[in-house]
Write the structure tokens for this entry.
Amino acid sequence: MNEERRTIVRVVGVTKSFTMGKVEVMALKGVDLEIFEGEYISIMGPSGSGKSTLFNMIGGLDKPTEGKVFIDEVDISQLDAYELAWLRNRKIGYIFQTFNLIPVMSALENVTLPMTFAGMNADDAQDKGIELLKLVGLGERFQHKPLELSGGQQQRVAVARSLANDPAIILADEPTGNLDLSTGEEIIELMQMLSEERGVTIISATHDYKMLNVSDRVIWVRDGVVDRVERREELDISVGGIGEKLTGTKRNGSPEPTGERG
Amino acid sequence: MTKQAAGAGKSKGRIDRLITLSFAKSVEISFKSLQVRFFRSMITVSSLVLAVSFLAFVLVNLDVAGGLLVHGGRDAATALSAAGYDVDLADGAVSMSAKERWIVILSLLVCTVGIVNAQLMSVTERFSEIGVMKCLGALDSMILRLFLLEAAMQGLLGASIGAVLGGLISLLTGAVRFGLAAWADLPWAGMLGSVGMATLAGCLLSLLGVLYPALVAARMEPINAIRAEH
């Protein structure tokens, strides 16, 4: 695992402060990170730890107050609106907690929309969309509207959509947060399969401890800094410690159900 | 920690500028959005119908009166004056009274405010949808175009129904008040012009009303747009 690998995301000295009313809040207090191509990364941390902020920075959805974020060695703060749109369209696939499919479009149209933006012709997009929906196990439901699908199925459509333009990175923001235990597991398996078979880099912000087993590395964020980074091997050894981390999370007032509370 | 620009050679400095959304596809998406929110769209459309039909009614009334004046001479002039028109016999023209003009302007204003209100609501409701589109690579101009297209379709529908309705009502009242002479003397080209002008005004109002909400929507940062829902 230690051989030279290509860095796909590099975060250098990133800080982010928000002004809430008259108070300045430092959400991130200086984060350095390096993520390699093909890795499965989980960003873990209690609510309010700066986890989501870090995640949004990596995805080019938010700009750092100080510091830089490089994707594929390109400093994304230097990009104009057009290039940023290109980045979001081709380089990054997004999966959201609330699925966020476009309700007026069928599953297939949702999947082909990014391809349309990318200038692919309608027939090719159609074929590729059906192929992707088959890949996520929804081959015969492509005509359905999002509201006619279950939560798990909607998230599968979202996974297929995130793959539309063969992105290098998939960013998943709490992808299992709105799903029950078994459906969540299915989505995690699906993402693991993508990471292994397609070599996609997966970065996921999560509260879900089911994610730990499939992650190559886990980045623990606490109080706006990276608390520690653990590789999977280390995680297996410290499995007994997970419960402790869980209670640590709880104490900081995380309202999200983890699904494995027992 | 950071190996300074180890892969700088592979740097993707040049990025293809290729994000598109064809016009046909834009129309399709806007049309579907309207279909899904049929009831809401119809409310917006109906406010346009009312305002534009009033405008068309007033304009066609003037045409009817003008026609009568040209053919009826002095008798018609007194009849028209009695009916409340400002008649200028020397010019052979009938003009709107100041009061009438103000009512028309007010009705159009109220209508525009109504449209802004309805469109703001429709945009707010779709913040997360807009955010997703932007995450998928949509440009500000595409979002703007989608909303403008929606407004144009609503405008065209509402304004044309309103203009035809207003014109018909005006013709009927004309016939009731002045007899069939009102129709016989009518300058048809002028009347069609009035109806056309009312339609055009309605479309412009609809576009004007959606401009601000659409700009707000298009300029949103995707992350704020998505967060707005939670």
